[in-house]
Amino acid sequence: MDTILSLAGVGKTYKSGHQALRSVDLNIRRGEIFALLGPNGAGKTTLIGIVCGTISPTSGTITVDGHDAVRDYRPARAKLGLVPQELSTDQFTSVRHTMEFSRGLFGRAPDRAYIDQLLKDLALWDKRDNKLRELSGGMKRRVLIGKALAHEPDILFLDEPSAGVDVSLRRDMWRLIARLRERGTTIILTTHYIEEAEEMADRVGVISKGELLLVEEKQALMKKLGKREMDILLVEPLAAIPPELSEWDLSLEEEGHSLRYAFDAQAEHTGIPSLLRKLPELGIAFKDLETRKSSLEDIFVGLVSDQREQAA
């Protein structure tokens, strides 16, 4: 799978001295769904703005399908579609005109059949002649997606697309993304709905304080960093973990009614058998065991917490 978008040493420092991005290197594969995860203020929107030409980088180069995003701005930008967080549209134009106008801005010939299908895919067909000011917030979000897709871009950026939208729109949007992916569109999204990234993405990047901490295949990341947890449900609650159990990574949960053991499922020795033998020796009776895998959210929170601790 070849690279359609490449960032090399991309940084952004504002006049105030704030460093929003720190020398980001990233290659996006053609046709993949890439999820960029990070807390508020991590640099996600800045990164997207730099690629899409709304923010000027301080350093580095961006190549979009062979075009330098600065020197060859027009052909590079024509490859990109952006669905921003903010609802920014002309409130007095119709839904159809908004999409047709956006298509024309990129020099694409009129294609009524394509726009009609887009309106139907986004459940906007019945609203096609309505002025934007007449629409609900969710409907306006659908129009933004339609604007971004009107010129048939090869790369679609979705900046927090699910934030503040209803469940129906979220479901429709993800169905549309699945169809776009089948057609070969490359999709890059930022999201706080980590479960959606976990379900949809091929690869995941984690960014914090302007630094890209890692980029991994989703499954490889979860296998490499994901831990398992075992909850040991106790017959009688504990006030504290006995010192004799210090060799295991244990925490008290449920007001002392449960011992939680975090372990590496890939390790040769998990420590579970020895722990379960040790508990009765200490007079600690248990009635049940529950295990679960770490989610992508657990991994993300752990990575960001580690970075904060190292910076402290």
Describe this structure in words.
The protein is of the alpha/beta class and 312 residues long. It has 2 domains: 3-223, P-loop containing nucleotide triphosphate hydrolases (Rossmann fold, 3-Layer(aba) Sandwich), CATH 3.40.50; 227-293, 2-Layer Sandwich (Alpha-Beta Plaits), CATH 3.30.70. The chain has helices spanning 44-52, 73-78, 95-105, 112-121, 137-149, 167-182, 194-200, 218-225, 272-281, 296-311; strands spanning 3-13, 19-29, 33-37, 59-64, 67-68, 80-83, 155-159, 186-190, 203-208, 211-217, 228-234, 250-253, 258-263, 286-293. It has a 6-stranded mixed β-sheet with strand order 6-7-8-3-9-10, sandwiched between helices. A 4-stranded antiparallel β-sheet has the order 2-1-4-5. Helix 3 (95-105) packs parallel to helix 5. The longest helix is centred in the middle third of the chain and has 16 residues, at 167-182. The two termini are 40 Å apart.
